[in-house]
């Protein structure tokens, strides 16, 4: 499986289908690990945060989420198979888990959201076992770990605390958590619960999902300035050959 580096973050150059196959193979083997789906904002952040970069690169799968990463790969002339949106990867993974009667724990988002997401996923995939739900607002990590482990073993734990909180949590507690594969998925539970709409296909297909989100959630404007800064940095790195500056 090929890796390509974008500003020092090593992405897996694989399709969504291959990513799901790889995740399922690990689950069947009981091989513990975590999946990250960094977008340009996180890669830009990791440029000046060595710890964040290390924990992204220590993931079992580093999936290229977002059009910014796809553009960056084009600028750098590094072959990326396709954009793999975390939320779509997880939707397919859940389908495969259901086919094999495997289990899922939903962790993150505001109280009540994970339960709604669980109901919707169970309706879509009757074969799926949901071991439990836990909201993403807790006083200390130990409390959240206790609640997750109280549900018994889960083949997959979705960790939806927003980035980089979820990545830090997964890396720090991988060994303690009673789950095989942890997936950091940002606001996905809100979408599965129907609390937040995903952008219509037109926006997704034309690389304009960020624009749709900006229209719906204008407070994201400041965070989104990371995209042009990120692309400029990628262009500079191509000229200088240095990835970290
Ligand atoms: N969240 C959480 N705990 C926190 C902070 C955030 O569970 O301490 C949840 C929040 O409710 C939302 C998700 O994390 O469901 C973050 O969503 P967002 O779309 O901002 O994440 P992104 O995908 O952009 O990282």
Task: Give a structural overview.
By secondary structure, the protein is α/β, with parallel strands linked by helices. Helix content is 49%, strand content 16%. It contains 13 helices and eight strands. It has helices at residues 16-29, 40-47, 50-57, 67-75, 86-99, 113-124, 141-149, 165-173, 188-192, 201-205, 209-216, 221-224, 226-240; strands spanning 3-6, 9-12, 33-36, 61-62, 103-108, 129-134, 154-160, 179-184. The strands form two sheets. A six-stranded parallel sheet has the order 4-3-8-7-5-6, with helices on both faces. Strands 1-2 form a two-stranded antiparallel ribbon. Helix 8 links the parallel strand 7 and strand 8. Helix 1 packs across helix 5 (86-99). The longest helix is centred in the C-terminal third of the chain and has 15 residues, at 226-240. It starts with a strand and ends in a 5-residue tail after the last helix. The protein binds uridine-5'-diphosphate (UDP). Uridine-5'-diphosphate binds next to helix 9.
């Amino acid at each position: 499986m090929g890796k390509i580096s974008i500003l020092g973050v090593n992405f897996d150059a694989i399709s969504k289908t291959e990513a799901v196959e790889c995740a399922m193979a690990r689950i069947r083997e009981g091989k513990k690990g975590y999946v990250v789906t960094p977008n340009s904002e996180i890669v830009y952040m990791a440029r000046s945060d060595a710890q964040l970069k290390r924990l992204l690169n220590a993931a079992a799968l580093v999936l290229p989420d977002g059009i910014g990463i796809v553009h960056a790969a084009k600028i750098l002339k590094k072959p990326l198979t396709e954009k793999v949106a975390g939320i779509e990867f997880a939707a397919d993974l859940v389908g495969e888990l259901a086919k094999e009667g495997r289990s899922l724990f939903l962790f993150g988002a505001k109280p009540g959201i994970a339960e709604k997401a669980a109901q919707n996923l169970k309706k879509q995939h009757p074969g799926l076992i949901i071991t439990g739900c836990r909201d993403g607002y807790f006083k200390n990590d130990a409390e959240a770990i206790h609640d997750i482990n109280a549900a018994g073993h889960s083949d997959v734990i979705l960790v939806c605390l927003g980035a980089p909180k979820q990545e830090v949590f997964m890396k720090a507690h991988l060994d303690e958590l009673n789950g095989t594969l942890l997936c950091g998925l940002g606001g996905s539970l809100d979408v599965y619960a129907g609390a937040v709409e995903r952008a219509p296909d037109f926006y997704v297909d034309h690389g304009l999902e960020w624009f749709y989100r900006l229209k719906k959630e204008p407070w994201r404007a400041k965070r989104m300035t990371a995209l042009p800064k990120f692309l400029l940095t990628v262009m500079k790195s191509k000229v200088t050959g240095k990835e970290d500056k």
